[in-house]
Amino acid sequence: QVQLVESGGGLVQAGGSLRLSCAASTRAFTSYDMGWFRQAPGKEREFVASIRWTGGTTYAASVKGRFTISRDNAKNTIYLQLDSLKSEDTAVYYCAAQRVGGNRYENWGQGTQVTVSS
């Protein structure tokens, strides 16, 4: 079981930036592919971005070119840089971990709120 703790959320104006962090409590961080998801009020949780243990990345079309996911394996941490924020990016952002070779995210953080004011 991996414990995940997100931080870095907050209130920002449209067009602004934030950087989210997710710290993982595991000695086998490189055994996990990592992802960011978000859930806006009244909506389903949706995929935002993922990064494999190799460093390969995938993005949702709605954030591609504006958000950047990265990982620091020495710190057991992943990041999500959010630039050119829009009001529709307002959501609770969740970090998740999936074992390499697995087919679902098994571990989730508690979430961090991002609010973009227009």
Structure explained in plain terms:
The protein is an all-beta fold and 118 residues long. Helices cover 0% and strands 53% of the residues. It has no helices and eleven strands. It has strands at residues 3-7, 10-13, 18-25, 32-39, 46-51, 57-59, 67-72, 77-82, 91-99, 107-108, 112-117. Strands 2, 4, 5, 6, 9, 10 and 11 form a seven-stranded mixed beta sheet that branches. A four-stranded antiparallel beta sheet has the order 1-3-8-7, with no helix packed on it. Strand 5 and strand 6 (57-59) form a beta hairpin. The radius of gyration is 13 Å and the shape is globular. The mean pLDDT is 97.
Structural class from helices and strands?
A: mainly beta
- Total strands: 11
Helix content: under 10%
Summarize the biggest pleated sheet: 7 strands, mixed
The 3D shape can be described as: globular
Question: Could you tell me the strand content as a percent range?
Answer: over 45%
Q: What is the count of helical runs?
A: 0
Order of helices and strands: EEEEEEEEEEE
Rg over CA atoms, rounded to whole Å, is 13 Å
Please give the alpha-carbon distance between the first and last residues: 39 Å
Mean pLDDT figure: 97
Spans of 5+ residues with little confidence (pLDDT < 50)?
none
